[in-house]
Design goal:
This protein has one domain: Adenine-n6-DNA-methyltransferase TaqI, Chain A, domain 2 (Alpha-Beta Complex). Helices cover 38% and strands 20% of the residues. The chain contains 7 helices and 14 strands. Strands 2-11-7-9 form a 4-stranded antiparallel β-sheet. Strands 6-3-10 form a 3-stranded mixed β-sheet. The chain starts with 9 loop residues before the first helix and ends with a helix.
Length: 243
């Protein structure tokens, strides 16, 4: 590890991000946020490699805005993403609703690389997160929280973290339960303890996970194909048996 190099030292990367964020606030491009308490030892779920650091999500991201609470339309100018559109870490563009409200289209516009967090859902699904990788204009509904990573953070890596067992267990710990649903507000989301690797390791992790996910997809397709072959064979055997 080369100390002071953001590519190999996450502490240096975090310091760089904090400086970038302060400059954005000074330039009026970001709102000044209420600082959160430092991470306490009992909040740390496991030890990290020497080149990594724990940080709060708010330190490396910005936004954390709730979406539109207006009634959507079956047809219109711009799609409105809802919690059902968040599937397996990505955005599912089936079963869309729409809006024609120009003010809301501006206020809740999504941009490539934004992350969407489902703040209200069942106990099992609350906190599910998806990465927005669309160039088309879209907005998001009120049960979602939109945030985006600062420039020195891989949004793909962040999405993998927010779909990990670490994040799922955290959601189970902090959620507020009510009859039939659970909630995790934006304040709690901001405080999530995030495992931050150096830049080079972020990229390497994303490449490795992407590769493994492709293999999983291929295996699932093979299983599906073989299952269909088995079903076809069974139908053939049954036909021959009764003819």
């Amino acid at each position: 590890m080369q100390k002071g190099n953001p590519d190999t030292d996450a502490a240096a990367l975090l310091a760089k991000i904090k400086a970038e964020k302060q400059q954005l606030i000074a330039d009026g491009k970001l709102k000044k946020e209420k600082p959160l308490s430092e991470i306490q030892p009992d909040e740390i779920p496991f030890s990290l490699p020497d080149s990594w650091v724990w940080c709060r999500l708010i330190e490396i991201a910005e936004g954390f805005e709730y979406g539109s609470s207006s009634k959507s339309l079956k047809a219109g100018k711009v799609p409105v993403l809802r919690m059902g559109n968040l599937q397996n870490g990505l955005v599912d563009l089936t079963d869309l609703v729409y809006t024609n409200d120009e003010k809301e289209i501006q206020q809740y516009a999504l941009y490539y690389g934004d992350l969407l967090f489902n703040r209200t859902n069942s106990r099992e699904l609350v906190g599910k997160t998806s990465l927005f990788l669309c160039d088309e204009k879209m907005i998001y509904a009120g049960y979602l929280v939109r945030y985006r990573m600062l420039l020195s953070i891989s949004f793909q890596y962040a999405n993998y973290v927010m779909n990990s067992q670490l994040h799922r267990e955290w959601c189970n710990t902090v959620k507020s339960d009510a009859i039939g649903q659970s909630n995790i507000n934006a304040t709690k989301l901001r405080s999530f303890c995030f495992p931050l690797p150096p830049l080079a390791e972020q990229k390497a992790i994303v490449e490795k996970v992407d590769y493994l996910m492709k293999i999983i997809d291929q295996l699932e397709e093979q299983i599906k194909h073989r299952k269909q072959l088995a079903e076809d064979l069974m139908q053939t055997v049954l036909r021959e048996a009764f003819e």
